[in-house]
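Re: the request from the purification team.
They wanted to know what the chain is likely to look like in 3D before they choose a buffer screen. I agreed to run a prediction and write the result into the notebook, where they can find it.
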Amino acid sequence: MQMGLKEAAAFFIVLGMMAGSYFVGFKPMQAQREQLLADIESKKHALENLRASLTVVANMQRKLDEISKSIRFFDSRLPRDKEIKPIIEGIWQIAEKHKLTADRVRMQRVEIGPNYLEQPIDLELTGDFKGFYQFISELERLSRITRLGRIDIQQNSKDPTLMQIKLTMNIYYTPEAQGVADVR
């Protein structure tokens, strides 16, 4: 088969159209496809970050629930204003039960904490070591939050079998109007 001028011209026109369609059609479409694939990868990465963030948020929510539960627990252990007197009376009953005599009791100024009040009480007791040990042991088992801040023990000058005990006890409580959980 011999190719004439017409056939050669038609061949080069078709060849030119194919080359033109590559530069006009296929190449821009390939660039657009690559851009779309890059966008898909970017969005996949963003979705993975979102999933990781949601996991962190879920863990934080669980931790907040645990903290709230702890706050409610400690709030339940903090008496209200009107419950302080029975607690102090209970401490005196414990002291009498273990044959300790109260020489002096002095309520100090109430200290205000962020979500609680603290009532320091200075106590001077006289009694033997066994009674004092049992008194302290029973104080530790109280259901309310208390703290012994200072303990000074000396031998009684009149009776060497007895001890002179000076201690500062702190009782923590919340104001009657609100509990710790309500302050937030």
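For the purification team: The first helix runs from residue 5 to 77.
Please add any questions underneath this entry.
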